[in-house]
Structure formats: structure tokens, C-alpha cells
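Quick illustration, no need to memorize.
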Amino acid sequence: MSFLPIGTRTRLNEVRYEIRGELASRAHELEAEGRSLIKLNIGNPGAFGFRAPEHLQKAIANHIENTDPYAHQQGLPAAREAVAAYHAQVRGTPNASADRVYIGNGVSELIDISLRALLNPGDEVLLPSPDYPLWSASTILNDGRPVYYSCLPENDFLPDPEQIENLVSSRTRAIVLINPNNPTGAVYSREVLTKIVEIARRHGLMIMADEIYDNIVYDDVEFVPVAPLCGEDVPCMSFGGLSKVHRACGWRVGWAVLSGESKRVATYVRALNLLSALRLCANVPGQFAIEAALNGADTITPLCQPGGRLFEAREAIRKAVKQSPHLELVTPHAAMYAFPSVTGAAAIGFDDHKFALELLEEHNVLISPGSSFNVPYRNHFRLTLLPPLDKMAVVFERIDALLDVYAERNGGRAREVA
């Protein structure tokens, strides 16, 4: 007896997530063969020796006996109160209250829930290009249509508010901001954010602000939260969590805070509550760390200042790019990534996916192709700032070695090696 293959949802054919896709699968196969790889495709601090702060670990341990039951679908009351207080007192978020806070299994789950509560088939979401591809995937899988506004390298990867407004249509429902930005490390100025908020105000749109890297900033750059700029008349969902600033990715603890005038968001709140209830609740043990994270010692700033591990890794990347005849870089001012471009002779006919595969197969380094982040060009790649400095030096030595081959193949010159 023969059986037909089991069919799958056709919209999955539109979804890309190369960060954990084909290249990552090939890396797993190579490791199974005994190869030792340097994996720079995921912002996963724990894989490089970073630890969640001790006071967060103790907060969970001290409450472990209370973690067996389900929690409220929006999250533990004390955790939601802590998030609301932080947003009200530190951020200045309007209408910040515990009943407007949603705790999720990471920000990823909350992005999906927030879009599912908002979109009808064919509705449009304005997304940055490059974006974090989960935003595109969640829009598509919730029957929406991603519409991209360009954040170009020649503009330091900042959005152009005029272009954003030109993309607004009768089907547009929301503008997504990823600030600080993944993959580029760009930080949006107050002026740019204010202009985007005004667009949302004029057209009756929601702002969705992915701010998971809010306190990972370098060079005394100011992070400006967008919710206070939205006020009460522009609904805003602000996303944050423990994964990055507090180096606790595996705990899967994220939150979203909804601001905006109560009557305007009432229907949306009911939809969020229904969807939150359908997944029962978020991971309970990790929620006990939220209050400690928001009210405890600042453990991320030292890592982002001169002498700190993230700062020095960024400086090492800047130096390596400057010394390379094949690379250019818009300096990242935040987050934990760099997004270099390939230039010169090595860039002729360059394909970022092919390059990433060859770098993996021949040089044991795993990166993410730039086109994975929904950009129309194919000469960028993303790598994390997380490895120790000695490994970072090895990574760029191997990257340049492969790009030397590309350059010579195209009639250019390889670098001179001392």
C-alpha cells in the first residue's frame, strides 16, 4: 500500500529563518562528524560562557517550591507589577499597569500572539529591511503581508520616515520598530522616532516596538523608548525580556506592555487575553527573576563600556574590518551583532548564502547570510559579538582567507600576509 505525503501549510513556503535553517542543520551534521566549529549565527550568550546574573538565579531558586501550578495567563501578578512599575517610572510609558502586561515564553511568542490578535487576512505590517526574520515569519503565518521600509547602510541603517509614510495603505495595521536594531546595531534617534510616531498618529496605526536590546548600547549612545512618544493616542506594544540584557536566553522569559487610550485598545486587549489563555501560561520559574532583573544591580553596562567584553569584541571586529581589503562596516552602536559588507573584487558575483556555506564547509565558521534578514542585496553577513577575542581574530583570518580566493578569482589582489 502506498501513501500520499502529508501536506503542509503552503504559507510556510514563504517563511525564511536561516538563523536556525539549512546552514545550522549542516553545522549540526559536521559536528556529528567530529568537526569543531565557531558558531556565530545566534545571539546566544550562554554558549560563550556568559551567565545570567547570580541575583536572578537566586530569585528562581528561592521560589522553586511555588513554580508547580499554572500561573495567570498574563503572568504572575508580582512579575507584571514589576514590569509595569519599570515602564511607568523608568521609561515613562503612559497607562503602564499590570493588566496591560503580558509575560510570554520569550519575546518570540509574544510577537506571534500580538500579530495574531491584530491581523485579518491581507492586512499589512510595515517592517524594517533588514529585519529580525521572526517578524516577517509571524506576519506571514498570521495571514498578513510584510511591507518593507529600507534601512540602508549609506544612511547608517536608519529608517526614512518619508518612505515609511509613502508605504502606508488602506490595509496597513502597524509599524514595527526594532530598536536597538538586530542585525545592524543601529539606534534610532528621538527625532526619527518622533516622525514615525506622527505617521502612526495620522493614519491610525499601532506601533510595535521590539526593544529587547534596550540597555545594550555603546559609546554613550542614548536609547529612546518609543512608548512615551506615542502618548495615549497611538497604541504601542513594547517588547522586552531577560534573554539578552540579562543573558538568560534559555529561561524563555519575555514581556510586552500595551499602552494607549483604554477605549481604543479594549477589543485588542480581549483578543490578547484570549490568545494568552489558549496557551495556558508562560514558563513559571523564570517569571520569579523578573522583579530581581528590573530592580537589581546593573550587570550589562560594564560589559558595554571600554574594557567590557562586548565593547572589546565590537572593537576587535572594527579593527579586523578596517584591516581587511574586502570588508566594510557601519559601526554598530548597540545590541550584540555586526553586519559587515563585502566590497571590491571579492564582491563581484558575490552570493551571501554560498559564501556562508563555503565558510562553514572549508573554514568551520558559521555565520548568517545578510539576505536572511529580508534585504534585497546579497553582500552582507551577520555575526555575533559574543566569542572571546582570540576566537574573533581566528574568525576574521578565515573570512579574509576565503575572500582572498574570491578576489583573486575576479582578477583582484589578495591581502598581503606578513
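The chain has a mean pLDDT of 94.
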